[in-house]
């Protein structure tokens, strides 16, 4: 047996016994994937209008029937205005996920770009960007989103922009802290001397170092964005009615919790499962979370 075979045999049991993803991260990804699939395919599987009203079916369950005796196509029943809870839930889930995902993607791109720029240039560029980030960090996040909502007429666009302004600060701080040490590594210097471009150095040297922390921060940011959208809808300053949204659905059905408790629990349970899945995904890599916290504290 040569050296390579002895090494492969020695490390084979360790490779088999060490899973690539922890179990809780797999459970979280399954929950999030199921709800994203429901948002994408729900209206295609069971077509319907989330705004269509059948007042004589108000607060009835899944076995409700039309006036002609046919079974209604609403697997989760109807709300207090006779609208299908299933179709409203699918539409609300798609709207919330779209706004949150758009805000997290924009915040990630802006935060990483500015963080790497600050770490690479240093000097007054780093001080100026840090001052802007700290100034935004001093404002409460929901207050900043409300200020943007007052300026922009479209509520989904205002939520997307406001959440992006809130979330990019965390990505900036993490990428500046992790990028500073990576930019000073011999590999970056060797690539620069060999004439490789900025994109090559970022892809092969910076991103592998930053990826665990950034992916964890993205999952946390997605959960925070979803909670903010639902909280604003719950206090009637988010997505206006009658557009379906998870927080708005909760507050609409709250007065009818005695007559239809399952109707109220439906948006609550979906929101809980979505946040639980994202937190399980983000908490699966303890080393990444710890590294991110340390990096953010040092920044």
Can you give a write-up of this model?
With 299 residues, the chain is an all-alpha fold. It contains eleven helices and no strands. The longest helix has 37 residues. It starts with a helix and ends with a helix.
Question: Any descriptors?
Answer:
299 residues; mainly alpha; 11 helices; 73% helix; disordered N terminus
Short description:
The chain has 299 residues and is mainly α.
Q: State the secondary-structure class.
A: mainly alpha
Helix content: over 70%
> If you average the pLDDT, what whole number results?
83
Question: Over the alpha carbons, how many angstroms does the gyration radius reach?
Answer: 24 Å
* Element-by-element helix/strand order: HHHHHHHHHHH
Q: Can you count the beta strands?
A: 0
Give the topology.
Blueprint: H1 3-17, H2 23-45, H3 85-121, H4 123-138, H5 141-151, H6 155-183, H7 186-193, H8 198-234, H9 246-253, H10 261-282, H11 286-298
Helix pairs in contact: 2-3, 2-10, 3-4, 3-6, 3-8, 4-6, 5-6, 6-8, 6-11, 7-8, 8-9, 8-10, 8-11, 9-10
